[in-house]
Amino acid sequence: MNDDELLARDFDAERTRLRSVAYRILGTYGDADDAVQEAWFRLHRTDRTSIDNLSGWLTTVVSRVCLDMLRARRSRAEEVLDAEDDTFQSEISDEPESFAVQRDSVSDALLVVLDRLGPAERLCFVLHDLFEVPFDQIAAVIERSPEATRQLASRARRRVRTADLPSARAEQRNAVSAFLRASREGDLAGLLEVLDPDIELRADRVAVAAAAMARGGAPEIDHRLRGAEAIAAAFQGRARQASLAIIDGVVGAVFAPGGRVLSVIAARVQDGRIVRIDVCADQDTIAGMRIEVLDAA
C-alpha cells in the first residue's frame, strides 16, 4: 500500500465522525459533506509528518471550515464575550460525567434551536458538549482564549436549555406537514406559502440520477435548486408516497415503499417557513442516519 492509499485509508476511518461533527455544526448534510471534503483536500496538501494526532488535526480543520461557512451565512455581527465576563457561567458541570446527560437531554430537538446561536457559540457547544473536544483545542479554532471559549459554550448551553423546544419542534413539524400536504395535492400556492423565497435545495448525485431515471432520460437538473418557485415546481404533486419523519433530530420526510427508506428529505425551518431542503438517496449515508417515521404516506 503506497502513501496515498494509506492516507486515504486513515481519512476514511475518520470520515463518519467528521461528518457527524460537521452536520451538528452546520445543520445540513450537503454542507457537512462539503466541509469533510475540504478537510480531505487540505490533508492531501499537508506534509503528513507534521501531524502528530490525525484525529485531532482533522477535527480542527473541519471545525475551522464549518466556522467559516457559518459566518458566511450570517448577515448580522457575531457577539463577542469578554474573557473576564462571567455573566454566562454555566450551571451545568463541564466534567466528563455530565456529557451523557447533556447529550440525552437535547439530542432530539437540538438542531431546531442551534440556528439561533451565533457561529462561535454553536461551534463551542457542539464540539465541547456533544463531542468532548477540549476547550484549549476549540480556542485555537475560534482564536480566543480558553476562558472566553468556555464562556461561549456556557452561554450556548444556557440558551439551549431555556429554549422552548416543544414550540420549536411544533413549528418545524407544522411547516413540513404543510409542505408534504401541498406537494401531495399538487397545490402550488400552498407550496409557495410554506417555502422561504430564498430557499435552497440540495440533492446528492444518487437522488439526481434517480429523478432523471424516473423521467426517462439523463439528468436535466443540477444538484442545487434555489428559490421558492423552482423548488415548488419540482415538488408539485410528487410527495404522494412520502412520510413525515424525524431524521437525526430534525423533522423531514422519507420515501420508504415497502418499509425500505429509498430517500430522505431533511428540512430546516425558520420563522415558520422552510429555508433549506437536503435530499439524500445514497444508501450508505442513509444507513448512518437515525430515522423515526411519524406517519405513513
Layout of helices and strands, plus pairs?
Blueprint: H1 3-26, H2 29-44, H3 54-73, H4 99-106, H5 110-114, H6 119-130, H7 135-142, H8 146-162, H9 165-185, H10 188-194, E1 195-203, H11 205-215, E2 224-226, H12 228-235, E3 242-247, E4 250-255, E5 263-270, E6 273-280, H13 283-287, E7 291-293
Parallel strand pairs: 1-6
Antiparallel strand pairs: 1-2, 3-4, 3-7, 4-5, 5-6
Helix pairs in contact: 1-2, 1-3, 2-3, 3-6, 3-7, 6-8, 7-8, 9-10
The overall pLDDT, averaged over residues, is 83
List the helices and strands in order.
HHHHHHHHHHEHEHEEEEHE
Cα shape: globular
The name of the CATH architecture of the largest domain is Up-down Bundle
CATH topology of the largest domain: Butyryl-CoA Dehydrogenase, subunit A, domain 3
Strand content is 5-15%
Strands side by side in the biggest sheet: 2-1-6-5-4-3-7
Q: Let me know the number of strands.
A: 7
Helix content: 40-55%
What is the alpha-carbon Rg in Å?
Answer: 20 Å
Number of domains: 2
- Name the structural class: alpha+beta
Number of helices: 13
CATH class of the largest domain: Mainly Alpha
The termini sit apart by: 49 Å
Low-pLDDT segments, ≥5 res? 76-108
Biggest sheet architecture: 7 strands, mixed
